[in-house]
Every structure is written in structure tokens, then in C-alpha cells.
Write a structure and sequence with these properties.
Layout lengths: L1 H7 L4 E6 L6 H14 L3 E6 L10 H12 L3 H19 L16 H14 L5 E6 L6 H11 L7 E7 L9 H7 L4 E4 L5 H12 L5 H11 L3 H13 L6 H9 L3 H12 L3 H13 L5 H8 L3 H14 L2 E2 L5 E2 L3 H10 L1 H17 L4 H8 L8 H16 L3 H12 L7 H14 L4 H11 L6 H10 L2 H6 L1 H10 L9 H13 L4 H13 L2 H5 L2 H17 L4 H14 L7 H14 L7 H14 L2 H17 L3 H9 L11 H7 L5 H7 L3 H4 L2 H13 L6 H17 L10 H11 L3 H18 L2 H14 L2 H15 L5 H15 L4 H18 L22 H11 L4 H8 L3 H15 L7 H5 L8
Parallel strand pairs: 1-4, 1-5, 2-3, 3-4
Antiparallel strand pairs: 6-7
Helix pairs in contact: 4-5, 5-6, 6-7, 8-9, 8-10, 9-10, 9-11, 12-16, 13-14, 13-15, 13-16, 13-17, 17-18, 18-19, 19-20, 20-21, 21-22, 23-26, 26-29, 27-29, 29-30, 29-31, 30-31, 31-32, 31-33, 32-33, 33-34, 33-35, 38-39, 39-40, 40-41, 40-42, 41-42, 42-43, 43-44, 44-45, 46-48, 47-48
Amino acid sequence: MHAIAEAAAKRGSLLLLTGPCGSGTTSLLQAVRDLATSQGAAVLGAVAATAERDFPFGVLRQLYEPLIAGLADDDRAAVVAGVADFVRPVFAADGCNADAESLAPVPHAVLHGTRHLLSVVGRHRPVVLLVDDLQWADVESLRCLGYLAHRLAGLRVVIVASLRPGLPESASDLVRAVVDGAAEVLHTGPLSDGGVRAMIRVVFGEDGTERFAVAGAAASRRTPLVLRMLLSDLAQSGLRPDDDAAEHLLSARPRALRSWYASLLRALPSGALAYTAALSFLGDAADAPLIGEIAGLDHVECVLVTRTLQVLGLIVAEPTPRLTHPALHDAVRETVGVAEAERLHIEVAQTLHRLGHPAEQVAAHLLAVPSPQGAWAMDALRDAVRAATRRGATADAARYLRRALLDTPVHAEQRGGLLMELAVVVSATDPEVASRHLLQALPLLPDEPGRAEALVEVPVVCWRAAPEEITDAARSLLTDTSGVDVEHRMRLEARLVLLAEDRRAVVDAARRLGEEDHARLRATPGGRELMAVLLRAAALSAGMSCADVVAAASDLLEAVSPEDPGIADTVAALVETFVLADRPDAVDSVLDMAAHEVHRRADPSAIATLESAAALMLLAQGLVGTSLELLSEEHSCGPVDVGPLLVAGILTLPDLEQTRRLLPGPVWSEHPVMTAFRQALRAVGESDDSLATRVQRLLDCGRCLDRVGWTNPAVFPWRSHAAELLHLLGDQTAALELLHTELAAAVRWGGRQAIGRAQRSVGLVEPGAAGVHATREALDTLSRSENRWELARTEAQLSFLLRDCAPSESARLAARARATAETCGVRLQGLQDAPVPLERPQDGLTPAELRVATLAATGLTNQTIAEQLDVSSRAVEKHLTSVYRKLGVSGRAVLRDALGTWAEPHR
């Protein structure tokens, strides 16, 4: 305002605005325009641009053409009469083409004419000339502006120009001739805290939180234009300036900001652009010498360019050079183009590899290069694979291997090795893809011993994903003429036994264990792996007694070494064996040793295998909560491999939704045993199926288990579940027949858990004292088992059975059951501290009432219950009314708790 007032008194002046890119000089010029217009001044504006520097008088024309067009007739006549011939070159098509290198001025008549125009316009009001980006003005306009800058006295004219410091053009003689006449220089800079908050308020219409304001200042480095673009991007996305949006602000890379940066980069001198590109492509590896090498600049040139880019606000030089905003990286790639970007990636990769930088830094650049790069690139990528594997980054390792495949011919032997490595790397996260890579690799390997080594090198999960093709390949290598050594033969045989899906193969494996020399098997890693899966087969089929299996497995435990290549599969098979034998504690220390070893090897598939084994062991110990937490956790190796025995164990838990969530993916889904357990889940969980249908599902489950040779009742007590449902249907004879078969099989096997579970089911089905006696036997058996959850269930059942005839003992058992369950991480519902005995026996629930109440407690509707029991809905209503009266409850909502945990086995 002061300058305009001075101009009104014929004391014209030049004001200069200067500051880094985006610091607000253009906005400040707009504010000056608005202010001058409000003061009644004539405002003329021009924007200089690099693309228009070759147009003579280009800036001057932007200023004067609107001026002359807007003159009144008298004023226009005065101008024409005074200097018509002199100013004609300004508006001619070719101007007068002044020489930028020459000190010869634009003709004096032209200079005088430009001043005369302003004097005519300024007769009645002040004139304000606004010139943005003065450094890019054409030569002729600069000479005229320089002339005016030193001859403003006596004119009602204010010139306000903005200048970007640091650029070579800003230091030219012609620009200096203009700015030397400045009466005042204003330096724009970073926003204050108040400025940041004010801009947030302007963009969002509300104040931002403290965290959001701090994030805005950090993300923009307080540069006004950058902050405005970041805030506008968030506002357009519908976000508010709160703490949740702060993270978005820090990571935002708006397209408008990228385009603005790209326009700045295109205006840079070639050396500055090369320096910026080198800095961007080098990333974290950037240091001054490397940047200069990639950019092709010597030390002096680097120093000068660094200063320029710092002044422009594009880089921060301390402690090491870096770009001021992530969007600059995008702008660099947009500016240099695809071909130059590929050349830079190659040059950076070669330089980093030559200087010994981390292999993954080199590989990151090779990933962006589609063309083959030779042996050095292959070495770098293989080193990067090992580095990524060591830190558990299997996805990165897989990307490096896929890139390496681009550099190998389709039928090369080396390609087979790469495909093998890729199969191993992706096996933990995508077994099906891994199996395809394995099958692609096998024909490319040079000989049968090499193929055998490849087959045992990949995790067994890959074999499960393509069982027929891979097992056929394995069997073809077990001929007498294959040349495969004994060690690899035994490991191949172990895989085949592990994947056996028919009764004959499992039974033959158990029989073979009895025929083998155990000491010979324990002597080598391959033998130990084979013996472990043979023991597992013997346990699954109950082909040997529990005691004999435990004795042989215990001897094998002593021989297992952390150096065994197949240690994960060996230990996992032993865990399943000891779990079936109700001795999970026996394998605890060996499991810890194996887990430590596979983590040291950074083997994701082996880690996943042992995590699954650990979850199974914990579940077999009754540590339900800990086991489920382990299964639910996110692991760096990928999801835990939930196998059939683990699913069978989860089927005994109260929350069957947990089982559904943990059912395995496509690798296990087609396994016959998993088909059986899906049938079981529909039978024992909440379902609209009739009781008869549920029984049939459990019988189908049993037949399926029998077909694959998994006949040990310790695997899954399907007969017990079916018998309990038959009991609800009133078929006591069929129920007891199944239970006697189950108990006899459990006794033959000899595992305490299997025996105790069968005894407990007998206790549910047998009436009166016989049921109590059988449950007491189960309690005695399971008190010597390692599975505390099964003990808690049995204590709860006995508490329920005794609550009428022995209420004091029932109360003690209820308290014990609750305490035992809590140690397992499970909360038992419905147990009463002091159950009150019913006054008369006839007040107890009748069998029909008990069946209806149990089904209602599972959430079934009256109509569904009626259909399952083949009675009328009215009969169901009568039974439930009687049940509510006898139990002293208000309705169905509290029925489950009132019935207690007795209802659990009758789901």
C-alpha cells in the first residue's frame, strides 16, 4: 500500500519477491493484484515461461496489449502521436530480435516508447506491473524492464516482480540489471505454526488437531504450495483434519503435486536434472560421490548443483542429500521417461554391485529392468534371495527369483535350479504355485539323483498340492537302476508314507516298522525321517500298541539332531505320534530344539509346520486358549498349516465357530480325512439337520477314516458322538453297541485319553448308577492323562450327574471343573457352586423333557425340534413349559446355563 501511495505521488518503485519454489511468491503477487485493484490502480500482469523465452517482447506484450486496448480514445491518440513509430517493434510479429549475449541495447526509441505508454496511463491513476518468474522473461522484455526499473522517478508506476533464486537465469546480467533497481526485496519462506494452522482452516473450514498440524508441517516442510496441495487432496477424499488423517497426510502423493514438481524439473539445467534423477534412483544408497558418478558431474559441478537445488527447495543436503518430498520421486520418473529410467536403473545396479552394496539394493533396481543383464545380475539376484530369506521376506525372495528367471533360457539347467528355489520360497504362502514350479523344474534337472534331491528339498506341503504328479515322480526314482543314494531313497519313502491316503498303505507302513532295524534307521537323517512317519502310521492305524509306539518313538527322540535336513517333518510326525499316545510332554524339548533350528535356517515352510505341531501339542495338553492363540496369530512365515489331527482336536471344543475359521485351505481341503471331519463338524455343531441325519454323518465320517486306515479311536471319537445322538433319539441299544466297540478299541490301543473319553460317553448313555460309575472310571483314567481339558469336561459331567443324589460332591466337582478349565483357557458355563437337590425324584426331568431341553439349548426352534423328534410342536411347548418350571428358569434364553455343561456332549 505504501508503494502504491508513493506512486500516486509520482514516486514509482520496483519491489522484488524471491524465495524457494512453492514458497508463495505467486500467491503474494495475486494478493498485490487484489490490493492494488481495491486501491483504484491499473493492474497489468505477465507470467514468464521457459517455453516463451524466444518470443521477442513476449512479457512486455502481455503487459501492454491489454493496456493499449483499454485506453480511452484521447489517451490512445496521445500515445500514437508521441511514439507510434518507436513502439511498433514491440507489437510487430518478429520484434527486433535483440542479442542476449550482446550489450547492445534495444533501440532507445523503443525503450522510451515503453516508458511513455506508462506515463500516459498513469496520468489519472497509479499503474502496477506484476511480473511472475522474471528470470524466464525474454531478452527484449528484460532490457525494457531494466530500463524502466532505473527511470521510475516521475512516474505513477510500481513494478512488482518475483524471482526464483538459485537458477542460472536468475544470475544473468539482464536480470541483475532489473533487480538492481529494486527499492525493496521481500523474501518468502516456510510457514510458521500459525500459518500451517491457518491454511488447514482455510482448506477444511475447521481447525485441525495438533497431531494433524504437526504432520502437515512435516510432510510439506512448511512449503505453502506443497501444503495446500496435500490438504486439498485429503479434503477432496472426504477426510477431516484429525489424528486419523495425519498418517494419510504423511504418505500422500497427489497427482497435482507430482505434476507441479515435474514442471519444475523440466525447467532445470541438464546438470541439475541429472543430479536430481541420480539422487532419486539411488534412494537410501545415495551419497555425494555416488550421485556425482551416476549424474556424470565432477565435484565442483555437484557442489554448484546442490546449492541450486537447495535454494529451490527441492533437496535437503544434510547429512546426506535427499529429495524434500516423496512425490518428487514420481516426478523424476515422469520427467526422464521410460528409456532413461531403465538406463539409470541398470547403471545404479551395476555401480552398487561393483561397490559391494547390499544385494537387495541391487536387486531392487534389477526388478525394474526387463532386459537380460548377464552373469553379474544373476549373482546379485541369488545373493538377494538369500538375504531376503534370512530376514523372512519370502515375497521379496520370490520376486528376485522370478526376475532371475528372465535372464535364463527356457530349457537351461540353471533354470531348473531357480525354479526349485522358487518352489521352496513360495511353498509356505502358496503351495499350489510351489508345486507347479517343482513340476516345471524336474525335467530341467540333469539326472535322477538331482531330481531326488529336489523332491526332498521342497517342503512336503508342495507334495500335498499336487500329490499324483509328484508322488509318481518320486516312485520312478525308487527303482533299483535310478542311481539315487540310500539317504535320499529313505527321505522319498518317508514322503510317500506321509501322504498315503488308503488303508493298505497305512497298514503296510505300520507292518514295515515292525520289520525294520530300528537302530539302522536311527543312524541317519533320512532313516530318522522315515522311522518318524512309520511310527505315525502305526499310531494312526493302531497297528502297534501304544506302549510299543511310545518306546520306539522315545528311542528315536534321543537320536534326532538339529542338523537333520528334514527335521521339521521328522519332529512334526513325532508330535502327532506322541499326541495320539497321550504323551505330548515327551516331545516338548525336541520341538523347541527343532523350532530354534528352522528359525536359524529362516525356512518359512518348516516354521509353519512346527507352529502347527506346537499348536497340536498344546491342544493335546489341554492348553486350549494358548493353542488357539497360536493358530490365530499372524506369522511371518504365513498361515499355520492346520492339519487333520489339529482339526480333530478343535472339534472337541465348545466354540465350533473357531473350527470353521481354522479349517485348512485348498492344500488340505481335498484330503479324505478332511472330508470326514467336515461331516463330523456338521454333526456335532449347531445345525438344522435332524438327529438321524447327524448320526449318519458321523457314521460316514467313521467309514471315511476306516478307508484311509486311521482307525485309532484316539484320532477322533466319532462312535462316542454318534452314540450320544442315538441316546437322544432313544436308541439305547445301538448307542451302547457303538460305545462298547469304541471302548474296546481304545483299550487295545492303550492310550489313556482315548479310554477315558470312551468311558465318559458310556457314563452319559448308561442310566442311573451305571452312568455315574462309568463317569467315575473316566475321571480316574483322565486324571492320569496329560489332557487337562478332557479332565475338566469329565469333572463337569460327573458334577451334573451327582447334583440330585450327592449335591455336596457335585458342588466340589463343579468348582474343580471350573478351576481345571480355567487353566486350559476355557470358561465353563452353567456350573453351580451349590446345586440344590430336587425335593422328589419325580421333579427331575423325564427323558423326553431332557431331549427337548437339550435341543432347545442349542438354539433350535420348536418346529425344528418337533421335526427331529417326530412329535407335534404343541408337545414340544408342553415339555419346555415343564422344564422351565422344574429348573426354575424364565425361558429359553437361560436354558443352556441352567442345564449346565451336561448339554455340551449332546450338541
